[in-house]
Write a structure and sequence with these properties.
Mean pLDDT: 87
Helix content: 25-40%
Radius of gyration: 14 Å
Largest sheet: 3 strands, mixed
Number of domains: 1
Order of helices and strands: HHEEHEH
Low-confidence stretches: 101-107
Strand content: 15-25%
Shape: globular
Number of strands: 3
CATH architecture: 2-Layer Sandwich
CATH class: Alpha Beta
Amino acid sequence: MNETMSTHVPSIKEINDSIKDVRARLRGHAGDLIIHDIDEDGEVSIEFIGACSACPAIGFTYLAIVEPALTEIKGVNSIKTHQVHLSPAFRKRMSTFTQGSSSRIGS
């Protein structure tokens, strides 16, 4: 690969450092988030643990707080989790609540 074309893929430590505020919010509700992996294409593999793993609001938390924080990190291009399944209709409906508000939600 040409050096000018290479893209920085952040380490798991860099990602964790970038989302420490998000993880603090999740811990405030007896949950947390684990970053399992990031591949060479910038796909981050995550898992919700603790209370988050069984929370009925996991989809909203993911869409409003976790996804925006992760995709803000340079080199993160997508997120994979087996715990959150959001339909396009849900994403569209929730976008009216979440756009520009991720820093306020859950505070």
